[in-house]
Design brief:
Length: 187
């Protein structure tokens, strides 16, 4: 079994690298439209290594690798958007380890999976260029966000999210986005 301190350090480094590449591509205006191939390579490489860690150690929880490394693992999962089976596997593992991972992270991952599958979200964490992605039940979303100590949505926060999504233009044409979702296995 691998040394958990080394794994923790590696997970943190992988997440930092992901965010550094993302920021550089954003500054160069190359993060979008669509899914930038350089970003996707980073996401796939990180996911592959995280999968090896999971096979060896189990899902990296707070008690196994520490808070920061567990957060880094979640970021890697959250960004592995072209690997739906991996994201769903991690969702199941995080659900099983609910006391050992951030419940907010589980909510974000749940909604992210719903978004890419084209189903309404539950916690109101996902946005697209039109605004907040549809939710199953708005009253329940408000209750769950309060319970999980997620910031409530107001008009200003929604406008900020939409503006940031517009800047990235994640999927400029729904036809292309849907083609990509089908190609990678979301639909």
């Amino acid at each position: 079994m691998e040394n958990t301190k080394n794994i923790a350090r590696e997970l943190i480094e992988m997440a930092h690298h992901d965010l550094e590449v993302r920021e550089a591509l954003l500054k160069e205006g190359k993060l979008s439209p669509g899914y930038n191939p350089d970003m996707e390579r980073v996401h796939k490489k990180n996911a592959q290594r995280l999968e090896e860690i999971i096979d060896s150690l189990g899902y990296p929880t707070k008690s196994s690798v520490g808070e920061e490394a567990s957060q880094a693992a979640w970021l890697i999962v959250q960004h592995a958007i072209s690997l739906p089976l991996f994201m769903k596997r991690c969702y199941a593992l995080i659900s099983e380890a609910a006391n050992e991972v951030s419940p907010q992270n589980l909510a974000y991952l749940h909604d992210r999976i719903c978004y890419f599958e084209g189903r309404p979200q539950k916690f109101g964490t996902q946005f697209d260029r039109r605004g907040m992605y549809p939710v199953e039940d708005k009253a329940e979303m408000i209750r769950l966000r309060r319970e999980l100590q997620l910031a409530p949505h107001d008009e200003e926060s929604i406008a900020e999210f939409v503006a940031s999504v517009h800047k990235m233009d994640l999927h400029p044409h729904d036809l292309e986005f849907n083609r990509w979702r089908k190609q990678v296995g979301w639909i």
